[in-house]
Amino acid sequence: MDAGEWKKEQARVDAVRGQLKKRIARDEPIVSELKAQVVGIRSEFWDDVTVNLAESDDRIETAVSMKQQAEVLSERERSHRALRSGLQKMRRLLPAPYFGRIDLVEEGTDGTPEQAYVGVASFLADDGETFLVYDWRTPIASLYYDYGPGAVRYETPGGEIAGEMTLKRQFSIREGRIRSMFDTGMTIGDELLQDVLSRTSSSQMQAIVGTIQQDQNAIIRNDRARLLIVQGAAGSGKTSAALQRVAYLLYKHRSRISAEQMVLFSPNPMFSSYISSVLPELGEENIKQTTFQDYLELRLGRRYELEDAAEQLEAVLAGPEADDSIRLRAASISCKSSVRFLERIEAFASGLLRSGMRFKGFRLRGRVVVGRSQLTERFYAMDASIRLPNRIELLKEWLLEELERLETAEREADWVREEIEFLDDDQYRKIHKTLRRQRAGADEEESVLEERLLRTEVARRAFRPLRRLAESLAWIDAAGLYKDLFRGEQAENAAEERWSEIAARTLSALDDGRLLHEDAAPLLYLTELVQGFRMNTSIRYVIVDEAQDFSPFQFHFLKRLFPMAKITALGDFNQAIFAHSTELAASAWLQRLYGPDQTETIVLRRSYRSTRPIVEFTRSLLPDGTAIEPFDRPGELPVLVRAGSAEERDRLLGADLLKLAAGEAASIAVICRTEGESQSAWEALRAIPGLESLKRVTKDTAKFESGMLVIPAYLAKGVEFDAVLLYDASADAYGEERLRKLFYTACTRAMHVLRLYAAGAASPFFADASPGSFRVVEPARP
Ligand SMILES: Nc1ncnc2c1ncn2[C@@H]1O[C@H](COP(=O)(O)OP(=O)(O)OP(=O)(O)O)[C@@H](O)[C@H]1O
Fold it and tell me: In what residue span(s) does the UvrD-like helicase ATP-binding domain sit (predicted)?
């Protein structure tokens, strides 16, 4: 780049920063003053309004005065919020006002190119019209991500604009100085990306706004698809693109959609903390984050002892695949996560329109007051065309009336008289108050009236839990219905492998009040088919990360739970470590969920997280791994360290940990296969001098921190580390084919360094890796 051009650009950066500083200096005192005013008005609110309620004129005056004060307050609050957010944007722009420039000659103009500089927020000149910086989410900025110099077109709210891009320039600016600057073609320069990716990790995910790639931009800006499926290689930027997409959508629909109307399903709470700084970094509020497990807990947690996905995985990994009970459990999981089972449940629910409903009766003091057969008879006496949830609603209404009738009749029962003795003082006082009020106009004698009131109170108290039960729909015997799928005629028709054993195990777990993870979503699905689906109509966008771990049941839930939402499902089938996994792009049932017209799929092949040698090693572990493209970032080969014993392995690994920590690595993870392995590895390694502060991550860890830690592979999903040390890569630990994806997931967490340790024979996966894609190190022994 010639020096004159560089100087010109630096002068522009200086000028824009000058404007920013001027505006910041102007607005800072105004924001502080407004804040002081708001605080002042709030605290003096009651002093300033004339409170005089004696006369009616005064009352009006007071109301007017209060209204005026409230209006002043909300007007000041609005101005304060707007100015403060403008100020925050300017402060964010100050160190690096922009990262890109495009020159565009619009069709039909005189040929003079318009220059558009692109940054994290828009910034206008004093005239209030000229954009000194365009927000990366503005329509014109899309050109920066989608095109190279040449013919271009982009959508604006006013229609399509076509033109010629005459220049595309990238900048790296730090603290106001241009560090690098180059004109590029189609892709956003590898140089910049190299620079960004070679940095060490931090405890929080970073925004990628300056280096978004074209295919990622397609994810970010897609607002057509009802279901957007993103299948992307490990480290291809799925999570990053998803978060940028949230920021884009919040900007695009800022007048009608707020952060509360979006929800992100993440794999675990630690992951939520890891990504929580991206949106604030982009000047947006964080959206709601949850896990599917949270939803299950909310709906089923009170009634059952719920197993979570991690416990399920641990159970499956607890023994060798050849172990019969492990095989049976795996068969149970895959059967209950299948579309076939979903369809079976739907067919079973339709059958309930005719027969088979199960209810629980209502008891009062050990006596049945509304029997289950009474409920069933009423249910089936209804018109055959009425849907299940509507019948339940009608039955509930009847139940509430019936309980009221029973309660009135029950007041005369002998036990009520006895219970009166047990009313406490408070209740007596309340009743006497009512008594005093009613006595005036009553014909009855006081003692008769008193007894009537007391009896009413006792009966009301006794029926209260029954009324609550009726409202809660807990009188539908959902577990009983679910059990019916595993017994009698239903069970006999099942063609699944080992069905009768699966059925026996399911029934015995349910009888103990335990709900296995694979039963939770199907049971809830069946319950909702009967009683109607809960809905949240305010949510407009749902993002599902690690979507390969979602079963058909979970996707069907999302569709029904969020009927007004567009869903983005991001995942990688190669990282499907749980037994219930979805192939995403290749899944026919997922395509059918909203139908092909409303479903779009984007595939990301390029992997950015790891160095080229790491990607070359990890992709060679997969049968279709050649489709994954490494980003050309150099680094050292992955290393297989062969140890003679477990003790030697711990010693060697410990020494490597210390060496890496003394170097540049900010985060180093010792990744284990299971929670149990993680616990014993942590104990063994912590005993090594210098490693006393080694941390251990469990499924209850809420916050992601950098430094040295030990973590089970399934919890490391979605996060990344400068260095990954795979604790046990021996044939004992990873000898089975079913563990290939877990192994792959663990290895792909590494950004710069990957070392794998094996005491004894190494995992057979190494034999599948390309020759020369890793180095073997064997310590010299005497
Ligand atoms: N366009 C980009 N510019 C700069 N960095 C990027 C870009 N895309 C991805 N990255 C970086 O690559 C790493 C991996 O990204 P991310 O975690 O979003 O990938 P992922 O597809 O969700 O990975 P996984 O499925 O393995 O969890 C992150 O450090 C991210 O910042």
Answer: 211-611
